[in-house]
Predict the 3D structure of the following.
Amino acid sequence: MYGDIVTENTILIGGWMEGKYTGIRYVHATGSVEAKVWYSKREKMELNQVSLVKTGNEKKRYSIKLNNFQINLYKSIPNFEKYDTINEDKKLKLFSDFYLPITLGISTYYELEEQKTNLTKEEAKEKLIDKLKSELSEEIEEKDNIQDIQINIIKETEKEVEVEVIYEVLESIGTEEKIIY
């Protein structure tokens, strides 16, 4: 059975005895089953990338909420061309565990600007390989049993690179089952 593909619920180790007068009797059998399991990830990366980066400029806007009624304490949102917003609500309290039905809303607007990055094919491959390796390492429980790592360059054009990383891991796949008559 070496080299065969095993599917879930296939019995690999079983115990039985055949007696002259009793016929076949099923008995407890022990053993371990290890298999090579492949984990793979594939991803593309463009060589010309545009990312949004915070510039450091930020503006805060406040509001007061009374139950479901909101009063804005500002006239307009900031005039940033591109921005990210973080909203935070703080309930007002009188004592350590007595809250009023009044909430202070704080909206923080962070200005963003586009940042263009041009990668070489080699830089893109390295970034993708590092990223895919770290993602696969998080998925694999038995890191000491990694047998082989394959890196395949699937596609390489003037605009993008596609990489596949495959980990071959020796894992214990056996489970014990009760004998049901």
User: Anything to note?
Assistant: The CA atoms of residues 44 and 162 lie 4 Å apart.
